[in-house]
Design a protein that fits this description.
The complex is a heterotrimer of chains A (307), B (316) and C (369).
Chain A lengths: L2 H6 L19 H6 L9 H19 L1 H4 L31 H37 L1 H15 L5 H10 L3 H28 L2 H8 L4 H37 L11 H13 L4 H30 L2
Helix pairs in contact in A: 3-5, 3-12, 5-6, 5-8, 5-10, 5-12, 6-8, 7-8, 8-10, 10-11, 10-12, 11-12
Chain B lengths: L1 H28 L4 H6 L7 H11 L5 H13 L5 E2 L4 E2 H36 L3 H14 L3 H15 L11 H36 L2 H8 L4 H38 L5 H10 L3 H29 L1 H9 L1
Antiparallel strand pairs in B: 1-2
Helix pairs in contact in B: 1-4, 1-12, 5-6, 5-8, 5-10, 6-8, 7-8, 7-10, 8-10, 9-10, 10-11, 10-12, 11-12, 12-13
Chain C lengths: L7 E9 L8 E8 L4 E5 L6 H7 L9 E8 L2 E2 L5 H11 E4 L3 H4 L6 H11 L5 H14 L5 H4 L9 H14 L4 E5 L7 H18 L2 E6 L2 H7 L2 E6 L2 E7 H6 L4 H8 L49 E2 L17 E2 L11 H31 L1
Parallel strand pairs in C: 3-8, 3-9, 6-7, 7-8
Antiparallel strand pairs in C: 1-2, 1-4, 4-5, 9-10, 10-12, 11-12
The chains are: A mainly alpha (307), B mainly alpha (316), C alpha/beta (369).
Chain lengths: 307, 316, 369
């Protein structure tokens, strides 16, 4: 086969399980887990998305001041009221003000993915760096563990953990952190491998600095920029996964105002023709995820390219 | 070719062993007595029931033996008993599997037709069509499937009344009618990735010299797109479609819950919410097995589509 | 000059692409007659392939075209849609440099041939199958019935080039464009393919534009040879004359830097410098910078292709038969006629085609999609 046709022949998009491709996005799981994102052509789109996110964070922070009602104030006389002066976004079946709930819900819906990514990053970066630095059996072990996790499609690994430990926001966050860690570990490993080959690492070693210290003081800080860019991209995904778990009843429990849970609670009213209780939190999830994906791709490009 | 098949099979079996062991051993990760956990908690738990659980799962024997027996039973169709439904788990799953398979099949049909179609369109008509396809599909992928489900139900189920809001329907027409919205909600998220892979694969194939040569010999553009570009781009497209379909087995968990469909996915959710671990375990095993088998199958089929890959691999 | 209309007639073809300093093709004028082999020689990037593709109406997208390209009396650059497709399918066929790249790797040899046949008028499937086997036999492929079921990766390069030639012959074209058709093959296979092409030409009376970078090969194989440099024609002579008496310094340079049998390494005189890129523009003769004989005036002299004085002076009786043409300031020109007439045809060609040039650029864009 000539070089020309060989270059054109499409490579098998699924790498063999045993070998680790240099970049996480090449793996089948990554292809499944991380969906393509809007590639912002104009910075205007990014600006709008970023502005929207700042607004969301601000309203989440100021929710108690902004919300016209307490999120859990039940008023059965005002059940399923439409939009109006009293309730800007209407009420749900138990008469709770949807605007107040969505504003308060923004807190859990934003903080939980943040916590889970922080945890996953801690775990993933540690494992990835360890695998790259030590190589040998540590590397093999990490990659084998990763392979087994990758055999579970979608959220099934998380679902298994929840099946064992029971539903709840803490379990969900921990389980998702565990599920995200391999992807981050894989990404970190590929970064760390190329960073390790750089001369400055050798220089520290010659000076007699220990491996752990080089990793903690020099190697990991140099990877931080790229890893953070990657995490920003993962944020939308994490938010979506958590909302899905809450929707299934595995995550946030009543009376939380988590958006996913609100959709579940509001769903019954849809059949009665009242769309707001489900659509308000649903739209909130979709809008935040879209905005995060736009900003995420932009941030990943910026942070990655300055490496 | 044969050695490749063997290697693939060995990999498949190894992954299946590892995954099934994780699913099995999860019982021991649960806090407390595994027998109590398997029986679904302490309430209404009689000593006889506990003994039955111990006997069924051979809990008095070493872990490896337990696993071996459990696997042996699973291979023979004995997936244990549900202590909630008081029924064979295998029967529970068997009665619900058709709905789930129909849903996955329907969703696959939708995302393959629409996704590949959109990708081809984007690749052939560059410019604003291309941008619109990429923008619309990625937007669709940013919407969680349960939100999409409720949006579709609100619009086409409640507002227009075109489709039923819940249930699986009976007969072919009824099933199609009932499953249209669920399948569409599930397919929406897949459109982006499938159309993007199609588009990129087509663009790569279109850049080949033989396409230029075919054009130079006066072959109509339609034929060039069909026989030379799409045909050559098929490998990655098919692989991606296979992977997405395999992943959809897990996606049914959300969609069946959203639409109140009585399938395997909603069975899993109910089992977890009612602490019926044997059922959850069996469904997880089924879904993971299905996923692993389908992804490996895709890997096997790919070279059949592309003689170049076949030649390379047999040479390697 | 023969009275019959040339099969391929390119007149004053100029092609400019946005973002390049010099035109891809500048004032290219050439004719190929029925049954004639015209060699087109030059370094890579000299515009040989672009010239050949013009005969197919495949010029790069977004370019500005001037001049006229006619094949068998049809103005190619104004052809659109179905007519252009039919022209490519039936009148002109191209043999590409790398047969492995020119064949769709996932389709069978038979499919490749029947597809070409179908668009050349053989619509019956069974007849097309039979004809495909026949064609493979005609290009000297042993056991053609077996090869139609094979895929390209199962065949060797020489066999594939025969397949590509069979595909080109499927349409029974009037004009063959052989773009480095033998360059990718080893020497013995090259000889076989050249022999095959020669036989086919003799049998079918096709004209051929034979593109190569090998001046010796061109001189040995072609009736006339045309040398291109930086998108311009610098010399055109009958093959024996070109080989014996190269006139343009560039041609001489090319001959000087190709090894010959019996020569020593000292005989090799490489042309200094590199072929110009599209980013370089030239106010005068583009070769001046590399020309060993260049004079200061060459830097500003706009090149014009002019008839050469025949070797041994003008023929006293009979019409003036220009032995060839060259674009070099320092060459003695054939006495009177040529420069003026040449300029006139170039100008008229440009004016008639200028209206079509934008449209043809659009067609190029269409083709490039």
């Amino acid at each position: 086969m000539s070089a020309l046709t060989a270059a054109q022949s499409p490579q098998s998009p699924q790498p063999p399980r045993s070998s680790r491709p240099p970049q996480a996005p090449q793996t089948p799981r990554a292809a499944r887990i991380r969906r393509p994102r809007l590639r912002p052509r104009q910075p205007l789109t990014v600006l709008i998305a970023a502005g929207f996110l700042v607004l969301v964070v601000l309203t989440a922070a100021l929710a108690p001041l902004l919300a016209p009602y307490a999120p859990d104030s039940i008023d059965l006389s005002a059940s399923l009221v439409g939009t109006g002066r009293e309730h800007l976004l209407g009420t749900d079946a138990s008469g709770q003000d949807l605007l107040s709930r969505v504003l308060h819900g923004a807190r859990t819906s934003l903080i939980a993915p943040l916590a889970l990514l922080a945890l996953a990053a801690l775990l993933g970066v540690t494992l990835g760096t360890l695998a790259a630095w030590r190589g040998g059996w540590v590397d093999t072990l990490v990659s084998r563990l990763t392979d087994v996790m990758y055999a579970f499609p979608g959220l099934l690994f998380v679902v298994l953990i929840i099946a064992v430990f029971g539903a709840g926001m803490t379990t969900s966050v921990l389980a998702l952190a565990l599920a995200y860690a391999p992807t981050i570990a894989k990404y970190t490993r590929s970064l760390a491998l190329s960073e390790r080959a750089k001369p400055y690492i050798d220089a520290y070693r010659v000076q007699g600095m220990g491996g752990a210290r080089i990793c903690a003081r020099h190697l990991v800080p140099n990877l931080a920029r790229s890893v953070v860019g990657y995490l920003v991209v993962l944020f939308g995904e994490a938010l979506m996964s958590l909302a899905t778990l809450s929707y299934l009843g595995f995550g946030a429990q009543p009376p939380s105002s988590d958006w996913g849970l609100m959709v579940q609670e509001g769903q019954a009213a849809v059949v009665q023709g009242a769309l707001l209780p489900a659509m308000v939190p649903g739209t909130a999830i979709a809008a935040v995820v879209v905005a995060f994906n736009i900003v995420g791709v932009w941030a990943a490009d910026r942070l990655g390219s300055r490496r | 070719m044969l050695s490749r098949l063997f290697r693939q099979l060995a990999g498949l079996v190894a992954t299946l062993f590892a995954a099934s062991f994780v699913i099995f051993a999860a019982v021991y990760a649960a806090p407390g007595d595994p027998a109590v956990f398997l029986a679904g908690g302490r309430d209404k738990l009689t000593p006889e029931k506990l003994a039955a659980v111990r006997e069924q799962y051979h809990l008095d024997e070493p872990l490896v033996v337990q696993y071996g027996r459990w696997l042996w039973d699973c291979l023979h169709g004995d997936l244990g008993r549900s202590f909630k439904y008081a029924d064979q788990v295998a029967d529970l799953i068997a009665s619900r599997l058709p709905t789930t398979l129909a849903l996955v099949g329907f969703a696959t049909l939708i995302f393959v037709v629409l996704g590949v179609g959109a990708g081809v369109l984007a690749a052939v008509r560059r410019g604003w069509v291309d941008q619109a396809v990429v923008g619309a599909t990625t937007l669709a992928a940013s919407v969680p499937s349960f939100v999409a489900a409720i949006g579709l139900v609100s619009l086409f189920g409640v507002r227009f009344g075109w489709f039923p809001v819940t249930g699986a329907g009976s007969g072919f027409g009824g099933t199609v009618h009932h499953l249209t919205l669920p399948a569409l909600s599930m397919a929406l998220g897949a459109l982006a990735i499938v159309s993007r892979v199609t588009r990129q694969s087509m663009l790569d194939a279109a850049a080949s010299d033989h396409v230029e040569a075919a054009r130079a010999s006066g072959i109509p553009e339609r034929d060039i797109v069909r026989r030379h570009i799409l045909r050559n781009a098929l490998g990655p497209i098919l692989t991606m479609c296979g992977l997405v379909t395999a992943g959809m087995l897990a996606g049914t968990v959300v969609i069946e819950t959203a639409f109140g469909l009585s399938g395997v996915g909603s069975l899993l959710v109910n089992a977890i919410n009612t602490h019926d671990f044997p059922v959850a375990q069996a469904v997880l095993l089924l879904m993971v097995t299905g996923y692993i088998v389908v992804t490996n199958l895709v890997d096997l089929v790919h070279p059949l589509l592309d003689p170049r890959v076949r030649a390379e691999r047999s040479a390697a | 000059m023969t009275t019959t209309q040339p099969l391929l007639d390119i007149a004053g073809l100029t092609l400019e692409l946005p973002g390049t300093a010099r035109p891809l093709l500048a004032e290219v004028t050439l004719q190929v007659r029925t049954g004639e082999v015209l060699g087109l020689v030059g370094e890579s990037g000299s515009g040989k392939s672009t010239t050949a593709k013009a005969a197919l109406g495949m010029l790069p997208a977004g370019g500005r075209t001037e001049g006229r390209v006619t094949v068998d009396g049809t103005d190619v650059l104004t052809l659109r849609g179905e007519a252009l497709r039919a022209h490519r399918a039936r009148t002109v066929a191209m043999i590409h440099q790398d047969p492995r790249a020119a064949l769709n790797p996932v389709r069978r040899i038979g499919d490749f041939l029947t597809e070409r046949l179908a668009h050349a008028g053989v619509t019956d499937r069974r007849a097309a199958r039979a004809r495909a086997v026949e064609l493979l036999g005609a290009v000297g492929l042993p056991d053609p019935a077996r090869h139609v079921r094979q895929r390209p990766h199962e065949l060797s390069g020489g066999m594939l080039q025969r397949v590509v030639i069979a595909g080109a012959l499927a349409a029974e074209p009037r004009l063959l464009l052989a773009d480095e058709a033998t360059s990718a093959l080893d020497v013995t296979t090259q000889a076989e393919i050249l022999d095959l092409l020669r036989t086919l030409r003799a049998e079918r009376e096709t004209g051929m534009l034979f593109i190569t970078h090998d001046l010796h090969l061109a001189a040995a194989y072609c009736d006339r040879v045309l040398v291109m440099y930086a998108g311009r024609i610098v010399e055109q002579q009958p093959a024996p004359a070109l080989f014996a008496h190269p006139r343009h310094p560039y041609t001489r340079g090319l001959l000087g830097c190709s090894p010959t049998l019996g020569g020593t390494a000292a005989d090799l005189r490489p042309v200094p410098g590199r072929p110009p890129s599209l980013a370089e523009s030239f106010p005068g003769c583009p070769f001046a910078a590399r020309c060993p004989e260049a004079e200061p005036e060459c830097e500003t002299w706009a090149p014009v292709v002019s008839p050469l004085e025949p070797e041994g002076g003008p023929v006293p009786n009979g019409p003036p038969v220009p032995a060839g043409e060259a674009a070099c300031r320092r060459l003695p020109l054939a006495a009177s006629v040529a420069p003026a007439t040449h300029g006139a045809t170039g100008a008229s060609g440009a004016s008639t085609a200028s209206g079509a040039s934008e449209a043809s650029a659009a067609s190029g864009a269409e083709a490039a999609r």
